Amino acid sequence: MKDNIRASAVCKTWHDIAVSVRDRSPLLVYFNARLDQSKKGWLLMEHNHEGIKRLFFFNPFTREHITLPSLIATGAFGAAEFAFSCAPTSKGCVVCCISNRTPYRFLIHTWNVGAAKWVTEEVNKRAPSKFYGNNNIVFSDGYFWFPDQNGLGVYDPVARTWDTLYVPLPNLSSYLMWITEYQGNIYLVDSVSSRGQMRVIMFRLNRLRLVWEKKKICDGLSSFISDESSIMTYGLPRDMSDIV
């Protein structure tokens, strides 16, 4: 509420926006559905009923609901991970899914807002290995980035091409490791145990040298980390800045 009041004092436009959401409580409970990713106030959710996977966007603030086409016709089966580029109310929104992982083959599915069906590409390359169950795909600079034990998988949804950047991971545990992005930079956040206490280490990807460079926590950034979605932002109040 304090942040809302501060925002309302900036100007008339900010005041109107802040007041409009001041008494609106988000609907945080949605039964029988799994959260795949969140961004810009939107949740990408997955509902399985009798083996049929149904995907939809849900905005807990406005109660808006957008249903996606079925994935059945794409041949996707088993575990699948999802990410989306921006709010689904934008015409440029793209949803990306990776499925059917085998050691040297996997499927990439993309859906553009307004399309009647998914587009599926078969990639006959080594599949990226997951960070031990973390559904941790990020969109940055026009590409979807997939974490891998040996580097990063990069998918271009426009050209529909896949590339692998061989960037060795820091010698840390990948059990508590996530990637996130901020203003076009890719960050790696690792939580490690030292003498019975947890500490956070952060790295930034140097795309020219293809190395992870250790960064100071947090250079004014605030990082919110989870398996479903990881967000970095700047300019929060003092008590919420420089935190993970």
UniProtKB/TrEMBL annotation:
Ranges in coiled-coil conformation: none
InterPro entries: Gal_Oxase/kelch_b-propeller (IPR011043), KIB1-4_b-propeller (IPR005174)
Location of the KIB1-4 beta-propeller domain: 37-231
Domain of life: Eukaryota
SUPFAM superfamilies to which the protein is assigned, alphabetical: Galactose oxidase, central domain (SSF50965)
One Pfam family hit: Beta-prop_KIB1-4
UniProt name for this protein: KIB1-4 beta-propeller domain-containing protein
Source organism of the structure: Brassica campestris
